[in-house]
User: What shape does this take?
Amino acid sequence: MSIEIIQMFIPKSNTFTRPGIKMTPTSITDHETDNTNVRANARAHALLQKNGNRRQASWHFQVDDEPEVYQSIPVDEVAFHAGTRSGNYHSIAVERCVNKDGDYLKTIANTIELYKFLLKTYPSIKEIKQHNHWSGKNCPRLMRQGHKGMNWNKFIRKVRAEADVAKVKKVVGAGKSTYQTSNTSVSLNNKVVLKNSATRYATGERIPARYKGKTYTVMQRGSNRVLLKELYSWVHIRDIESTALRKLDKTVNTIKVGSKVTLRKSASRYATGEKIPSRYKNKSYTVQQVKADRVLLKELYSWVKRSDLLGLS
Ligand SMILES: [Zn+2]
Assistant: This one.
């Protein structure tokens, strides 16, 4: 098993959650997201951070059951995760996703790979601590209760096992364009286009050029990948574009920066996956940014789905 670290950093301008304060990390702090919602995976959490978390909370890495680990903050910068100053200023934070559509033990295995990699790569990091160590919070909760037979001591023994070294395939910086569309609306039997910029299947092999830019049917969906029926291959979600989204983009082009829109009463979640409090619904907001399937609302500083808006024309 190996992991791949994808860097999708919080913009430096967002000093609310990425203060830019330098530090030398001496430990890793282990967290669980405690968010069991479907698709509340590593990518969703990374997008939440990148798009601007409204809570002053941040963390360096997020891990789920897929090989792609997302990094949001460089390891030599402070994040707000520990609940205490000493934790925030000396420890890097890893959030383990516990979404119910994820495989808990695979997520643990990926966390172990990440910790081995971090310990080997950054010699200043000596210890692994629970969030609980800093603030007394019951986090990582499932690990602390030994969920699925994996308790803290066993976990640390596996991280420290010398026998197998870390297997990180590569660290890649996320290209700006790669993450501009969200594909959270991709579901079974959707028609999608494999982007021309796609280079490798989710399984690592190179994608022949003749397969790119063509339309395929989604046969299965993982949290970061989809199985394309006609290719019978898994590709990264970041490498596909939904044809439905393309169409939407063409027809609903009346939405412009500065327009007033109303957030529907039926809206349940932000485009980044968090629940929308009902006090924000059925109110009018100003459009600040527009993307294919989502809109940034100025007063909320949050991305919402286009389909959750009224007053588009
Ligand atoms: Zn925590």
The longest helix spans residues 104-121. The two ends are 50 Å apart (CA to CA). The CA atoms of residues 224 and 237 lie 6 Å apart.
